[in-house]
């Protein structure tokens, strides 16, 4: 049972900022770090309740603001299977964060026990991690105050990437050894296995040229450095932007989000034509690849390209394993996916493609409907899910020929290599590297599968973004009235034109996306649509 008096006393040290209205959004709570003390404390209380509700299973708490500036921070909860917090609890998080004072907080806490039918006899368990931000230690202390006041059995998992924390939560609740991926032992094994298999297929397989990894001066840098030691037989890693803890460096003009949105090289990169490179974001759950072509043009290989590569490869291996009848591959995207990628997936690879609302939880959920569900946001956040039926089919398949046996071993290795709980820059990188090594492809060869339509993303500040209501996986506006018809009329003037407008879930702004057959048309179209929105 919870001691509400103890909770109220602890809460007194973490008073609410009176003027702020907090909201648990797509990425949990995220804002300037100096406004977060009371929020993190209250998230700690909610984590305790959530764990008790889930029969005392471990709940994860991650303190990070991903690709956002260094002075920001954020906090989010991870459910027992390593997934994002269940949606109905997001509203509880918001209400708890906004309780006006200690008394209101305790009152809401007690009400929530009733409303959510929390079994208070269960001992709550929480595991928490944090990124490299200077504000983390103080926020961790606020979290620990809450966990202490709730009598939680807590594990401090220390400095971690977001996907490491997600994976640890799942492992702790399934009795697997959380140290496995924590130490990268398991991951390296699978990677070796896949690469060894590659060597078997092609007798004289060559190691690819080094991969230059921009770690956004964040937690990915020390974590990748650990991993790189173990895999140098198969992959050479060159880390750039590893100035962790140097003031002002985190995510500054570097990292996956910067590279994707500006479509240019990160600060500190001296990429030559033919070099291979990728960028992680500040908490290493996103990754995008890029290179400079022979004409010195910057070429981006984003989440759509990674999804296409992964789907192409897995379809081939499933076929080689003679499991194509039992294991159907599907791809999940959002409206931000480049039209060319959707066309390539549907027409060339002939895989079903679903489009869902922005936000990883929507993609993850939809991907679970496939035997193998490949999901990626264009910004490079994604992974591959193998259903339990698919994993069973792979385990139980009879090996009839050496080629088929090899394909089955590759599939098994893939299920291990991939972090199936959530998008994971390091794990995704190994997936891509394994495929490219297997194929002996450089980045230009991968890029050649299809050509991205020129595209652009704009941000418009409006008086009230909540007036923008969407339907059809956010691809059309229902409100403000008549705006969609006006957008459609503009789009119709451009070849292969597409544009849509939606309110951001993480920023106080409206996003406008446009793509068209040429760069000039795309640039013109987005200006027109931005004008309509303003
Ligand atoms: P919003 O701000 O709702 O567009 C952004 C990203 C999402 C997702 C979330 C969470 C774009 C266009 N949007 O959401 O894909 O990653 O942040 O981090 O990239
Ligand atoms: Zn991130």
From TrEMBL:
Pathway assigned in UniProt: Nucleotide-sugar biosynthesis; UDP-N-acetyl-alpha-D-glucosamine biosynthesis; N-acetyl-alpha-D-glucosamine 1-phosphate from alpha-D-glucosamine 6-phosphate (route I): step 2/2
Entry keyword set: Carbohydrate metabolism, Isomerase, Magnesium, Metal-binding, Phosphoprotein
Top EC class, one word: isomerase
Family: Belongs to the phosphohexose mutase family.
Stated name of the protein: Phosphoacetylglucosamine mutase
Domain Alpha-D-phosphohexomutase C-terminal, first and last residues per copy: 460-531
GO molecular function: magnesium ion binding; phosphoacetylglucosamine mutase activity
CC cofactor note: Binds 1 Mg(2+) ion per subunit.
Keyword Isomerase: yes
Residues reported in the UniProt entry to bind substrate: 377-379, 502-506, 511
């Amino acid at each position: 049972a919870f001691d509400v008096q103890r909770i109220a006393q602890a809460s007194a040290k973490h008073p609410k900022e009176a003027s702020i209205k907090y909201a648990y959004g797509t990425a949990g709570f995220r804002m300037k770090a100096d406004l977060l003390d009371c929020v993190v404390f209250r998230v700690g209380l909610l984590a305790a309740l959530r764990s008790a509700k889930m029969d005392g299973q471990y709940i994860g708490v991650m303190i990070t603001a991903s690709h956002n500036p260094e002075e920001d921070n954020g906090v989010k909860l991870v459910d027992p299977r390593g997934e994002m917090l269940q949606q109905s609890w997001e509203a509880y998080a918001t209400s708890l964060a906004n309780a006006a004072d200690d008394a209101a907080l305790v009152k809401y806490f007690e009400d929530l026990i009733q409303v959510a039918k929390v079994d208070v006899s269960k001992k709550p368990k929480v595991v928490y991690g944090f990124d490299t931000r200077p504000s983390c230690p103080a926020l961790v202390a606020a979290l620990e105050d809450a966990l202490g006041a709730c009598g939680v059995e807590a594990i401090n998992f220390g400095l971690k990437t977001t996907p490491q924390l997600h994976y640890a939560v799942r492992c702790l609740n399934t009795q697997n050894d959380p140290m496995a991926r924590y130490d990268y032992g398991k991951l390296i094994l699978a990677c070796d296995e896949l690469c060894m298999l590659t060597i078997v297929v092609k007798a004289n397989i060559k190691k690819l040229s080094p991969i230059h990894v921009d770690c956004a001066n964040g937690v990915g840098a020390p974590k990748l450095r650990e991993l790189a030691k173990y895999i140098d037989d198969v992959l050479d890693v060159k880390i750039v932007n590893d100035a962790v803890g140097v003031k002002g460096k985190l995510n500054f003009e570097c990292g996956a989000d910067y590279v994707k949105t500006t479509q240019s090289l990160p600060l500190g990169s001296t990429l030559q034509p033919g070099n291979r490179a990728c960028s992680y974001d500040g908490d290493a759950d996103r990754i995008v690849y890029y290179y400079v072509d022979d004409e010195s043009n910057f070429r981006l290989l984003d989440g759509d390209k990674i999804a296409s590569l992964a789907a192409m490869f897995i379809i081939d291996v499933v076929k080689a394993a003679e499991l194509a009848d039992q294991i159907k591959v599907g791809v999940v995207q959002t409206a931000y996916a480049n039209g060319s990628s959707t066309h390539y997936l549907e027409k060339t690879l002939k895989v079903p493609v679903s489009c869902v609302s922005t936000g990883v939880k929507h993609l993850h959920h939809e991907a679970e409907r496939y035997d193998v569900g490949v999901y990626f946001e264009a910004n490079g956040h994604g992974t591959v899910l193998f259903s339990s039926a698919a994993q069973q089919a792979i385990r139980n398949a009879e090996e009839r020929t050496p080629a088929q046996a090899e394909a089955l071993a590759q599939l098994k290795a893939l299920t291990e290599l991939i972090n199936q709980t959530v998008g994971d820059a390091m794990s995704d990188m190994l997936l891509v590297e394994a495929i490219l090594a297997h194929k002996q492809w450089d980045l230009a060869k991968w890029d050649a599968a299809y050509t991205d339509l020129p595209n652009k993303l704009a941000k418009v500040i409006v008086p009230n973004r909540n007036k923008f209501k969407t339907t059809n996986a956010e691809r059309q506006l229902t409100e403000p009235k008549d705006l969609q018809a006006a957008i459609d009329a503009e789009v119709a003037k451009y070849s292969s034109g597409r544009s849509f407008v939606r309110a951001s879930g993480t920023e106080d702004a409206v996003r406008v996306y446009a793509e068209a057959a040429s760069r000039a048309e795309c640039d013109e179209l987005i200006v027109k649509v931005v004008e309509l929105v303003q």
